[in-house]
Amino acid sequence: MNNILVTNEVTKRFGEHTALKKVSLEIPKNSIYGLLGPNGAGKTTLIRIINQITFPDEGAVFFDGAPLESHHIANIGYLPEERGLYKSMKVGEQALYLAQLKGLSKAEAKQRLKYWFDRLDIGDWWNKKIQELSKGMAQKIQFIVTVLHEPKLLIFDEPFSGFDPINANIIKDEILELRNKGASIIFSTHRMESVEELCDHIALIHQSEKILDGKLSDIKKAYKNNIFEVGLEVEKGATLLQELKDKFQITSSAFNPLENQLDFKVQLPSSDSGAVLDFLSGKANINQFVETIPSANEIFIRTVQNKDAHE
Amino acid sequence: MLMNKLPLIIKREYLAKVRNKSFVIMTFLSPILMVGMVVLIAYLTKLNDNEKRIISVLNESEHFTNDFLSDQNTGYVNFEGIGLQAAKDSTANLGYYGLLHIPEEGDLEMVAERSFFYSKDAPNTSVIDDIEDIFQDRLRQKKLMNMGVSTQDFANIADRFEIRTSTFAGEQNLKGINELKAAVGGAFGYLIMMFIIIYGGFVMRSVIEEKTSRIIEVIISSVKPFQLMLGKIIGTSLAGITQFAIWIVSASLLLFAAFAIFGIDPDTLNKGADMSSVMGGNLATPVPSPSKLMEYAQELYRLPWLTLIIFFLIYFVLGYLIYSSIYAAIGAAVDNETDTQQFIFPIILPLMLAIYVGFFSVFSNPHGPIAVGFSLFPLTSPIVMLMRLPGGIGEGGVPVWQVITSIILLIVTFIGIVWLAAKIYRIGILMYGKKPSYKEIFKWLRY
User: Fold this and answer.
1) What does the pLDDT look like over B9-39, one tens digit per residue?
2) ipTM computed for the complex
3) Does A238 share its domain with A115?
4) Whole domain around residue A278: which residue ranges?
5) pLDDT tens-digit series, residues B283-333
6) Architecture of the CATH domain B52-157
7) Among the residues of B68-176, which ranges form H helices?
8) How many CB pairs under 8 A join A and B?
9) How far does the CA of residue B428 sit from the closest CA of chain A (Å)?
10) CA distance, residue A275 to nearest chain B CA (Å)
């Protein structure tokens, strides 16, 4: 079994509204799986089904090969998007309570909390009340509580909201570290820039349906459109550009005569770039030749727009 | 593994409630306030009794001679040989309470008809009652005399009579024992109502707090919403029991202490006993004379206390569970406390109804059709049945079938309501941002 979690045609309705329509996902072990989609797409509903907060009307969910059952809760750590802590409870007490609810013994919870509090440099917060802490500080506690019981599957719903850039980086490193130690992570967000850095796999959910999923690198390959970015050092840039335009489909270009620098983008019929290289060899000094790979953001927007256009 | 989380939740809810500053303040301040109020009432009553009213009497008639006798509360001063206007002026100048003018001419009826009481303000009813009693006695005496009954005979027939009552089983009752029983039952019923309203409110606020602090989703990813709801209800009720225990112990201690310090005879309180017994502190009862005090104490002692306490617990637990799960559902449905009003009113309604029906209908006829009906209806039975129970169960008391039926109905209702409330709760806790209508909540039941 290489998948920690599999959902099989999961459908969920709330009255008239269908929140999820036959969503099938395969979340591989030891990877970071990006669950992407605009607000209201159904990400949170799917996550709540995985956490057994709500239950699917149709379809099934499998955890580590077995149908999802209530005892699996101890193997899942969940950081919800709407998150908070008891305001008038002390930090340590509260962390202990939440850890015990996840099935840790009190002694074990205490020991692990101490480790994490030291690691994130918040050891002196133990006896403070949550209402005395800032929002970012409370988020750190929540992160610790989520990962404390060392679950096999971690679910982070918009984990970086509420963090300043420095602390967001600390948390990002911790998430990567957890993956390296063997945890599988579902990472739900609508902010694409964090996806590139973290995710190995992604699934795109739009209007209750999964419209795309797979390895991020594969998807990127599938979405590239054979556009190459080329930079040349050439004296007679204008002439060369004209020749290129006659032979290839040039989508954009710029020539800087002072530095003899010609930059252009070329659209090729296939990913075979040999013809361009052959043509250029001997005519100019190539200082850049890259295939443009679409960003996750582009893929996201393109897929969603495609989907909307078809309807 | 999942079930051992319930004690954890109960413990947290209990500690969160008990450690709360307002809980601590309420717990220790309320007995002091309550006792302070009782002592104040007793003191004021005493003060009121000590104020002696002086009434001047301008008696120009021969029909009244020695009828106006001063007593502890009222003093009568006779004016003689002055006119009505002068008498009025003197009464005012001397600062007396009022002037009773009895005119000269005519027979007794005519004199009585034309007598007047003058005072600065509208007169106190008890003063008027006293004077009226004197007139009535004189009138009755005169009529009886006309029929040939002597004053001596009149005094003889003035005896009061109280019938002694007994059950068929031969148990003798004192007069007023039914009122006594009703008061004890009323106290228990009232206690249940107060507990439900106060602690149901706590459950509701606790649910709202979890919603507004957004911790709810973190928790229900570890435990089932139903467990959280149940743990909250149980934990809060344990905090309530703690508070009541502290209140009852400290209130009785303080009462004794206060009476000892201020030297107030607890008998002074007898007039207010109905109320103070309802408040759960002092179970003193109306006693006509000190000689009967022991008899009443014995009668009170003979009440089926064990039955009462056992059934108090049964009805209390079932009633509290039903109502507090409704409170929990309300808390889950709304975002803040101000939105709860429209939902709370329909809950308080049956409780108020139970108390009023209890006080007006059950007290006068504990086994009448209204009393029976309301003691079977599950939303009112915890209160109304307890008001009937001091009469005992079985012969002479509440028929066994009624007790069993009401408990079965309560259990069935409890299961139904908790099931519905848990459904609303489960959906409601994850709904943010808007105040739902009844229609919407009804929809949640079908999700």
Assistant:
1) 999 999 998 988 888 888 888 778 877 888 8
2) 0.78
3) no
4) 225-291
5) 444 444 455 566 666 666 677 778 888 888 888 889 999 999 999 999 988
6) 3-Layer(aba) Sandwich (3.40)
7) 84-94, 108-114, 125-146, 151-157
8) 69
9) 12
10) 57
